[in-house]
């Protein structure tokens, strides 16, 4: 008598009765193996049930209520701005990661020569194979992302998509456009050129103009009241370590809410 647990659903027999491709066979075999140990299918069914319950509670869109599928075709490109900004963010992230292999966040060399950060950017632009192209892709992706996010927010506002029950996602969108602008500002300072230096100086002055906490903000964000190595180091840490993880997590939440609630058509 075998002590092996009987397969109540006879998965093996079911698979043998079907004409499955090798890819499908491997996928189902792995899924069955995981399900026997981790109950993966049960959790997937719970998520599916939760998804449909949430969607049942959402009001119908205007397109569904009034059969306007073919009436607002000219709006459809505007509804791709969110996805467009996400693609631009991914392109900027990948190109930025590649640039990070050659960029050095140092304000000045020990021998007093011109800034190491600026020299590393010049090396990327002038000597690295496809370096000019790579930096241009990163810069244009960042600029396109800022424009797409701004236009996306305008579309959401003028179509009334920020109203109940989507007000939470509107607030998350405001946080995301703020993070996008901080992304752009911190990246703008990293080449440590004349433009970067004076943009940083403007940031210091703006921080100092904040009532009561201005000096504290300048010390925290810029490492003092004048630009230095501490300023460049802070901008680099924000741009490369803090902002990408925070922004990616919030984008995932933002897209998840859109997936659950659906897209709001024009009011």
Automatic annotation (TrEMBL):
GO terms classed as biological process: respiratory electron transport chain
Regions that span the bilayer: 78-104, 140-158, 170-188, 208-228, 240-260
Cellular component aspect of the GO annotation: membrane
Keyword tags: Membrane, Transmembrane, Transmembrane helix
Domain of life of the source: Archaea
PROSITE patterns in the record: CYTB_NTER (PS51002)
GO MF entry, a single one: electron transfer activity
Pfam families: Cytochrome_B
Protein name from the UniProt record: Cytochrome B6
Domain Cytochrome b/b6 N-terminal region profile: 30-267
Keyword Cell membrane: no
PANTHER family with a match to the protein in the record: CYTOCHROME B
